[in-house]
């Protein structure tokens, strides 16, 4: 006997092989113990639904998709950077603001100053906005603390958000995000500190599911990122990289060389980086909200990713500077309109491929027996609507491990 069964609706399983969206018209989906027990055409059910599950739900006129996965966010931070938005409109560049001590450094100041409960409260609001659009799994990075105490504070808040909001949170340690003021002009000493102090502390506390770094002219060099990756690897943690966002430093190939789960941003990635990612199975995480906010014009090499079979994910990059975004549906739209992805690719980017980018592709991101019962029910006529509309939220409800949350 199953716990729940949904009938009457259409199901976008997002399975890779098969029809577009893995679609099953007139589908049925059964859940037992928080896991998908059965999915297929309702006509193939082994008996009348009422005799198969304790609860039968009518999903008529709705589409069921996997719960959405936002696989790249910096959701936990103090303060905001609306003033920098104004400065950029007055002509200052993102890089110039960063070099003048604004940018990430200003958020570091506000995050260090914030009490843990206050940090939780402001972050909770942002998480709620994502969840209201069907996000059931979110990655959250540190990187606005840069000292041991504040990096751990951010990661604890991230874990607590997961425990209290019915959303799976995957944490990523991003100590190598920016140079903190106490290490001004001493980037190699700061990388020593990350490798010997803050990263081991996060790992020891069980607060890091993965390790990331920002490889860029305004942040850390490929050699410095590699040192962080060596330490992460020694600690048994998977890696990912902010790569080639503002220039091509070979970040994608560096990440691939470490078997990274993902390389993220990638506007300036060249063919050799794409080939290295394809060989390593590294997911390309595209962040159209940052592209849009920074008014970037260099497009990520989407056609090359397709050609070489690199899985593409799409995420918000939710952060106070380059992507003050809390809408995953808007990112699906931007992935199509700005990056020329198809609506199906965009949805796969926030489900199946996002799960892979977090190392949870075996259990999340696709509706199939044995996978987590994280679902969204949408009041839409076809799945392309999720990417097509702008500023419209057709979520009826989301289900986390079989339990209704929104
Ligand atoms: N790239 C990003 O998009 C964010 N961090 C990074 O390395 C931006 C962070 C910020 O501007 O606060
Ligand atoms: Fe980012």
Structure, explained:
The longest helix has 18 residues, at 148-165. The chain has 406 residues and is α/β, with parallel strands linked by helices. The two termini are 26 Å apart. It is globular. The strands form three sheets. It has an eight-stranded parallel sheet. The chain is 36% helix and 21% strand. The chain has helices spanning 82-89, 94-99, 104-113, 116-131, 148-165, 187-204, 222-234, 251-257, 271-280, 288-293, 302-307, 328-337, 343-349, 352-357, 385-388; strands at 2-7, 10-12, 23-24, 27-32, 35-41, 53-58, 63-66, 68-70, 135-141, 168-176, 210-215, 240-243, 262-265, 283-286, 312-314, 375-378, 395-400, 403-404. Residues 74, 103-104, 107, 177, 214, 242, 245, 290, 317, 319-323 line the site of 3-[(4S)-2,5-dioxoimidazolidin-4-yl]propanoic acid.
Give the topology.
Blueprint: E1 2-7, E2 10-12, E3 23-24, E4 27-32, E5 35-41, E6 53-58, E7 63-66, E8 68-70, H1 82-89, H2 94-99, H3 104-113, H4 116-131, E9 135-141, H5 148-165, E10 168-176, H6 187-204, E11 210-215, H7 222-234, E12 240-243, H8 251-257, E13 262-265, H9 271-280, E14 283-286, H10 288-293, H11 302-307, E15 312-314, H12 328-337, H13 343-349, H14 352-357, E16 375-378, H15 385-388, E17 395-400, E18 403-404
Parallel strand pairs: 1-6, 2-7, 8-9, 9-10, 10-11, 11-12, 12-13, 13-14, 14-15
Antiparallel strand pairs: 1-4, 2-3, 4-5, 7-16, 16-17, 17-18
Helix pairs in contact: 4-5, 5-6, 6-7, 8-9, 12-13
